[in-house]
Amino acid sequence: KRRIGVMTSGGDAPGMNGCVRAVVRMSIARGCEAYGIYEGYEGLVQGGKLIKQMKWSDVRGWLSEGGTLIGTARCAAFRERPGRLQAAKNLIVHGIDALVICGGDGSLTGADILRDEWQGLLKELVSNKELNQDQVEPFKHLNIVGMVGSIDNDMSLTDATIGCYSSLSRICEMVDVIDSTASSHQRAFVIEVMGRHCGWLALMAGVSTGADFVFMPEKPPSENWEAQMCSLVSKHRKLGKRKTIVIIAEGAQDRSLNKIPPTKVKDLLSNELGLDTRITTLGHVQRGGSPCAYDRQLSTLQGVEAVQAVLDATPETPTPVISVIENKIVRKGLIEAVKATHEVTNAIKAKNFDRAMLLRDAEFVE
Ligand code: ADP
Question: Binding site residues, as ranges?
């Protein structure tokens, strides 16, 4: 009977519980046992009570729960080989030879490193006399399957990461709330949204709420953006608009890669245009709470596919990541996806903004 471990790692995202639920139930449906690994890589390194078998009913009601009920953590120990040696031992002690991980590119990279080192780690466990040859014999290969959980939608080779549409919905809801008070007093609001190095949340929130101006890392504004923004906002006001909404990504920067702080935008709107301007940092309301219907669906379909990918894997199969492309659930190479993601960040660092937008599939923005 195969034993499949499931864990969530990195930043939490709505829909992660849906992944765990789907992996647990699909594993059981396919005659395997499922194990929950609690607190991300911390659970793998510490083992003991942090690795628990999960039954069908253990994940009842999880689809609509926000965050991750099996916990997540940043784990420094797993970044070093001794931590991964401990992780390998804990997996073998629990009889687990396949891991499904829902996390960001850091977490997925870490998992693939573990898989790469697997044979070496087993040899070391035997030569250290931590385990004997008979114990490691059945665990020749470790199967890893990745699923991308992130509110930022910052992973390449997938159209949507699990959690990004829940976060986008929450942002839109919050901007609508602010809209009503802004209109009443004819105020301007500079709204900072999350996304780390990715502008997807900011851009899509701008499109979805009809914001006046959007700042995002991949496409910094023109050199004279101060004048450009002010003239656009005053044009909108002259057309009768009673409110101004500027959305700024947390990673927003200018063409010289200097951070654009929300205070700078606020000062411009106040001092140049005389608008009563406030800053709202949406913060963690963007992260928590119940997943939207799309994230429930995506996490379930991807969880099912992840277990299927575990069962299909041969020792030669490169580690897959489960993606969604043009509405189809597909498998992509994990390493390729991580590499393509880094290419976007590199393009931004090299100030090759057109390429960054192209790689983000957002070249439609002018
Ligand atoms: P995310 O998965 O959201 O990108 P992080 O980059 O913080 O988040 O990674 C989460 C955890 O994954 C880290 O705390 C660490 O335990 C593990 N991890 C990340 N990168 C690596 C790596 N290069 N090697 C080993 N483990 C890693």
Answer: 11, 74-75, 104-107, 150-152, 187, 194-196, 250, 278, 284-287
